[in-house]
Design a protein that fits this description.
The chain is an alpha+beta fold. It contains 18 helices and 34 strands. Strand 9 and strand 10 form a beta hairpin.
Length: about 675
């Protein structure tokens, strides 16, 4: 406790995180306005905020990407990273938070958002990031603060410690009491709060709440525990030291109150950040960065500007970085910085250099990607952070509206993926479409809007095709014959094929039992190729699997036979045989594992049953109190928009993973409908 935790610790970087529509962007506006970075706070609804400034964010009135803005407070520089709250855009938050000094978790007293809050707190807890909880919209509170805290506590694995309690005026909150300072403040809209005398019932409530706060601090401070037991008033400086130390060590999560819309509680929050949050040296140590004189930076976001080229948003963790410096990356690439920019929403400004603690945008690092660690040294640094995107849950099949834009579409998708690695692109070799995978319906919608508006590519989209296949139930022996005479050398190939079904999952096997040279050895490879050709599209319209084909006999012509003739004969034989083999349709079945809040499990089970899902079982989610894990077998065709229903049933918190399990037969009306639909599409 000997360290003066209130001394400046260099430029700070703070993440604003929290559930969807909890008020993060509004809080950023309030911070920028109260610290003088902007004249007046903007509004998300009016489309005038510094955060959520992209056309997509303005259109949907929600965060669709990270915003960085810098301000000064009491002589210190602070960069705030306003992170999207929706689980669909969570990768921006997950990539950025490792390099921040602390996080402000913005939430409200809404039980429906508790699962979302738990997901965000778990990310911070697992990374060991110090965090404050800012209980927003306190002016709308209809519960007592203790009830609210009891509601929120299950979302956190460490104690939520009240730093403030509200002052009530009837049913309205008029101000707050700072339990560490032992001072009362009355809110004034868009102005600094006014200090008032602490008296009467407020004084009694303050003493009780302060003692509760001190008790939680004393759990990790024996000296403070002794003082409380002996009824000795602890020194105020010692309390602030404990608050700062226990925050940094991840022992407590302080809770502050306010209303971002009215700018209430903002200066108290800023003072807590100034006095108690750690600095960049602590952050570099947490990330395992070795001390070095070279500049060290972490890239947490990539942007492609329409006219400004590529920008890499980075936190300088150590050293000094000059414009024009050559940097080595942990991925083995090298880049030369062409421009260093201070970040402030959409209004960036050039600067000559950056120092430890600064959060800046680095220009034209074309080979550098999000997640890279950079060094100005002679050798590549080790990667300090590894952030893997969560598995995608929804897909669209894309093609350029104008085929001449195919190359342009490919380049635009690569840039989109650089900006947002949680988007995945897969080329479908059968349909020649690009399948774009994302984290949900809005995630994909925004991706298409960016393709159109930022990259100038119009696309057609549709649900991706399902991987239907077919197989056979009956064996048959079939002759395939190809004979063509057209002057000069003709074409002649003649094969006898024995076609048999194989067990499910057996794949394809080709054998030959030719005797007496009926088919010369040099043509047998061509026969196998022709068989494969014939299996590409069966009588039902789909690839044929789990089939064994044996070449048993045939004939040839010494002049007219060729590889092409035997390949054609084999294809004809297979194509004529398959309709006689009792073809049957197969559909892919996946094992789906859903995680959801326990109170939604019954709804999830109903959704699965309605989508032909076979529930395998469910149990509690390990380490996640109040959550379940549900496992089911589901046809791929039914998984398509499962995430839309799942998110609706879980207030946006549920998700799932899937893995291919097997192909299963589809018969009757369902098979007829699939075959008919495929025929129309073809």
């Amino acid at each position: 406790m000997g360290q003066d935790v209130r001394s400046p610790r260099g430029p700070r970087c703070i993440a604003l995180v929290g559930p969807f529509q909890s008020g993060k962007t509004t809080l950023l506006e309030a911070i920028l306005a109260r610290t003088g970075a902007i004249r007046n706070a903007g509004s998300v609804d009016a489309g005038t905020s510094v955060g959520d400034a992209s056309p997509e964010a303005r259109r949907h009135k929600m965060g669709t990407g990270l915003t960085a803005a810098t301000t000064d407070f009491m002589g210190d520089s602070y960069t705030f990273l306003d992170c999207p709250g929706s689980i669909e855009f969570a990768h921006d938050m997950r990539a950025a938070i490792p390099a921040v000094d602390a996080a402000v978790v913005v939430c409200e007293a809404d039980e429906k958002k508790l699962p979302q809050l738990q997901i965000i707190l778990r990310e911070l807890e697992d990374l060991g990031i110090p965090r404050f909880l800012f209980l927003n919209k306190i002016d709308r509170a209809n519960k007592r603060i203790r009830e609210t805290l009891a509601t929120l506590q299950p979302a956190s694995r460490i104690p939520l410690v009240l730093r403030q309690i509200p002052i009530w005026n009837g049913d309205l909150i008029a101000g707050f009491v700072d339990l560490a300072l032992e001072r009362a403040f009355v809110y004034r809209e868009h102005k600094a709060s006014e200090v008032v005398a602490l008296q009467g019932g407020d004084l009694d409530r303050e003493k009780e709440a302060r003692f509760s706060m001190l008790e939680k601090l004393a759990d990790h401070d024996d000296a403070l525990m002794e003082q409380l037991l002996e009824d000795i008033t602890p020194p105020r400086d010692a309390i602030f030291d404990d608050l700062a130390r226990e925050l940094r060590e991840g022992l407590i999560c302080p809770v502050l109150l306010g209303s971002a819309l009215r700018e209430n509680g903002v200066l108290r929050l800023m003072k807590a950040l100034r006095h108690e949050s750690p600095g960049v040296a602590d952050t570099a140590k947490r990330l395992g960065a070795a001390s070095a004189k070279d500049a060290l930076a972490y890239v947490f976001k990539t942007l492609h500007l329409q006219h400004g080229g590529k920008l890499s948003l980075a936190r300088i963790l150590a050293g000094h970085l000059d414009d024009g410096a050559t940097l080595q990356s942990s991925s083995g690439e090298t880049g030369r910085v062409s421009g260093i920019l201070s970040v402030n929403g959409a209004h960036d400004s050039k600067r000559a250099s950056a120092n430890a603690g600064d959060t800046v945008a680095l220009g034209k690092l074309d080979t550098i990607k999000t997640g890279d660690t950079l060094s100005s040294g002679k050798t590549a640094p080790k990667a300090l952070v590894s952030v893997e995107p969560t598995p995608p849950v929804l897909a669209l099949s894309l093609s350029a509206t104008d085929r001449k834009d195919d190359v342009k579409l490919g380049q635009a998708l690569l840039r989109l993926n650089e900006e947002d690695p949680s988007l995945t692109m897969i080329h479908n070799p059968r349909t020649h479409d690009i399948v774009l995978w994302g984290q949900g319906e809005m995630h994909l919608r925004v991706a298409l809007e960016r393709l159109r508006e930022r990259f100038g590519v119009n696309v057609k989209s549709q649900p991706p095709s399902i991987g239907y296949q077919e197989t056979i139930r009956k064996s048959i022996t079939q002759r395939g014959r190809h004979k063509k005479q057209s002057g000069g050398h003709g074409q002649f190939g003649d094969v006898v094929l024995e076609i048999k079904p194989m067990p499910r999952g057996g794949g394809f096997e080709f054998h030959e039992r030719v005797v007496g040279g009926a088919v010369p050895r040099n043509y047998i490879g061509a026969v196998e190729e022709g068989v494969v050709d014939g299996l590409l599209r069966g009588p039902l319209g789909f690839p044929v699997i789990d089939v064994q084909v044996t070449l048993t006999d045939g004939s040839y012509h010494s002049v007219d036979s060729s590889d092409l003739a035997f390949r054609t004969a084999a294809r004809i034989g297979v194509s004529e045989a398959l309709p006689q083999c009792q073809p049957v349709l197969l559909e892919p079945i996946h094992v789906v594992e859903i995680v959801c809040p326990t109170d939604a499990t019954a709804r999830i089970n109903a959704i699965l049953s309605g989508r032909r899902g076979q529930i395998l079982g469910f149990d509690t989610r390990d380490g996640w109190p109040g959550w379940d894990r549900v496992r089911a077998m589901m046809p791929e065709a039914e998984i398509g928009e499962l995430i839309v229903e799942l998110r609706s049933a879980t207030a946006g918190a549920g998700s799932f993973t899937r893995a291919f399990d097997r192909m299963a037969e589809v018969t009757g009306r369902a098979a007829d409908q699939i075959i008919a639909a495929h025929g129309v599409a073809a």
